[in-house]
């Protein structure tokens, strides 16, 4: 039997795929009461993941859609390269880093080739492959189970192992970023791992293009106040940038 979290994740996916869902059909699909389904939809509606409607819910246009690594590579590629160069400028020779999985963070890894004496830990298989070409970089790969859609590894043991390490900076990719929800992601183990990563670093650097603004994925990673630096592009709304700077967050636009 599915857990509440798993069921709600499936409801969000069904709503996104079909455009709408209704209480009666969902109750039959999951073999639970209509009261429980209504509660699920109410909670998902409060989080901005669906829009509640009479007798069900409809898809939310603010919901961040999850793409495979292959599809993400071609999305806003030129902007990702600019963002990566800006992030790389924040990295010093000899730094110790955690680099989150993702395609924007993969471009960051490519932009680090001229840095010397780096120590880098990552859960991204594609990122480890890039870092392997940096001759004097010490590269650590977080293990666990490979999630092929994101080409990244996760496990509870990895989170525990991270507690033994301390890093100068963590470079965090973003699936969704929102004034209320903060940074969000599609996969619960990723959200949990990202939070742990951020506790092990002195500085949290988030990097995202402006297309992720106002989008929410299912799982919360961090509130905005937990970010030290946001690297983004010039199309990020000025009001949002101002709200971040008022929280003491350094915002770098390219």
What does this structure look like?
The chain has 254 residues and is an alpha/beta fold. The protein has two domains: 4-59, Winged helix-like DNA-binding domain superfamily/Winged helix DNA-binding domain (Arc Repressor Mutant, subunit A, Orthogonal Bundle); 69-253, Rossmann fold, CATH 3.40.50.1360. 38% of the residues lie in helices and 24% in strands. The protein has ten helices and 15 strands. It has helices at 4-18, 23-30, 34-46, 69-73, 77-88, 103-110, 125-131, 156-162, 188-199, 238-246; strands at 20-22, 50-53, 56-59, 96-99, 119-122, 138-141, 145-147, 152-154, 167-173, 176-178, 182-185, 201-207, 219-222, 229-232, 250-253. The strands form four sheets. Strands 6-5-4-9-12-14-15 form a seven-stranded parallel beta sheet, sandwiched between helices. A three-stranded antiparallel beta sheet has the order 1-3-2. Strands 10-11-13 form a three-stranded antiparallel beta sheet. Helix 10 links the parallel strand 14 and strand 15 (250-253). Helix 5 (77-88) packs across helix 6 (103-110) and helix 6 (103-110) packs parallel to helix 7 (125-131). The longest helix has 15 residues, at 4-18. This is DeoR/GlpR family DNA-binding transcription regulator. Keywords: DNA-binding, Transcription, Transcription regulation. Residues 4-59 form the HTH deoR-type domain. It comes from Pseudoalteromonas shioyasakiensis. GO terms for molecular function: DNA binding.
